[in-house]
Write a structure and sequence with these properties.
The chain has 246 residues and is of the alpha/beta class. 46% of the residues lie in helices and 17% in strands. The chain has a domain at 26-74 and 134-227: P-loop containing nucleotide triphosphate hydrolases (Rossmann fold, 3-Layer(aba) Sandwich), CATH 3.40.50. The protein has helices at 8-15, 18-21, 28-36, 57-67, 97-106, 124-132, 143-151, 167-177, 182-196, 211-226, 235-244, and strands spanning 46-50, 71-73, 77-78, 93-94, 109-115, 118-123, 136-140, 157-163, 204-207. The strands form 2 sheets. A 5-stranded parallel β-sheet has the order 2-7-1-8-9, with helices on both faces. The chain has a 4-stranded mixed β-sheet with strand order 4-3-6-5. Strand 5 and strand 6 form a beta hairpin. Helix 4 (57-67) packs across helix 10. Residues 1-37 have low confidence and may be disordered. Bound molecules: guanosine-5'-monophosphate (5GP).
């Protein structure tokens, strides 16, 4: 994804008003208790955020990771060259085509796709490790990757598509990011129409008019999805323990 760690100043600005808004200042454990009702064990879920570049999903991802210690970001492998400020292993694992081919051949990638002439993929092992520990994984992947996860029948998949409020707004955000040349920005703008045509394949759609409101919407989605009965694997035992006390 775009420089995941870009916009620190922007983040600090957005985090400040959050403190009083909805519990950012609560310890994560308290937050969890509020969200999922306490000690009941649950299965982790795969939260996918997709959008055209510049719609704000990088900031949303950062905010989610800041708020929830129980979410881990899936760091993709890519054959794209690092942008200024991007760090290998944090933003992406930057690898060459030969290594990418080898990972595909070994089945090490949960999904992969070609985007803007480069290849991107999700390493399988870290995702499975996090999910089996009952934690959630956040993915910043495109519609092609989301489609592959859905086709594999992953019932732990929760997909969210982020739309910009307008095209001028999208272009302004791409330019502010100022990490890409004019040609790349033009290419990303023309790709946006194609990206956006996939909105209807997603479980949820959030229009990012104002980042904090969009963030609250994603948190609400997460809270509801975590509460799904089938994800709360410890419910039977919990109810049995309630009944034993009657
Ligand atoms: P960027 O080059 O701006 O970092 O990312 C370009 C696009 O590739 C973004 O839409 C991003 O969501 C997508 N992308 C990043 N990692 C992956 C991945 O592992 N799989 C897929 N399918 N898309 C990815």
């Amino acid at each position: 994804m775009g420089s995941r760690m870009a916009g620190q100043a922007m983040l600090e600005k957005t985090m400040a008003p959050l403190q009083g808004l909805s519990g950012r200042d609560l310890p994560e454990q308290d937050m969890q208790r509020r969200l999922d009702g306490g000690e009941v064990a649950r299965r982790g879920l795969m939260l996918v955020l997709s959008s055209p570049s510049g719609a704000g999903k990088t900031t949303l991802s950062r905010l989610l990771l800041e708020r929830y210690a129980s979410i881990e970001l899936s760091v993709s492998v890519t054959t794209r060259k690092p942008r200024p400020g991007e760090i290998d292993g944090r933003d992406y694992h930057f690898i060459d085509h030969a290594r990418f081919d080898a990972m595909v051949a070994r089945g090490d990638l949960l999904e992969w796709a070609q985007v803007f002439g480069n290849r991107y993929g999700t390493p399988r092992a870290p995702v499975e490790r996090v999910l089996s520990a009952g934690r959630d994984v956040l993915f910043d992947i495109d519609w092609q990757g989301t489609q592959q996860l859905r086709e594999k029948g992953r019932d732990d998949l929760v997909s969210v598509f982020v739309l910009p409020p307008s095209i001028p707004d999208l272009e302004a955000r791409l330019r502010t990011r100022a990490q890409d040349s004019d040609d790349v920005i033009r290419a990303r703008m023309s790709k946006a129409a194609d990206e956006m045509s996939h909105w209807a394949e997603y479980d949820y759609v959030v229009i990012n008019r104002e980042v904090l409101h969009a963030f609250e919407a994603v948190c609400a989605i997460l809270a509801a999805e975590r509460l799904k009965r089938e994800r709360q694997t410890g419910l039977s035992a919990f109810v049995r323990s309630l009944q034993a006390g009657l």
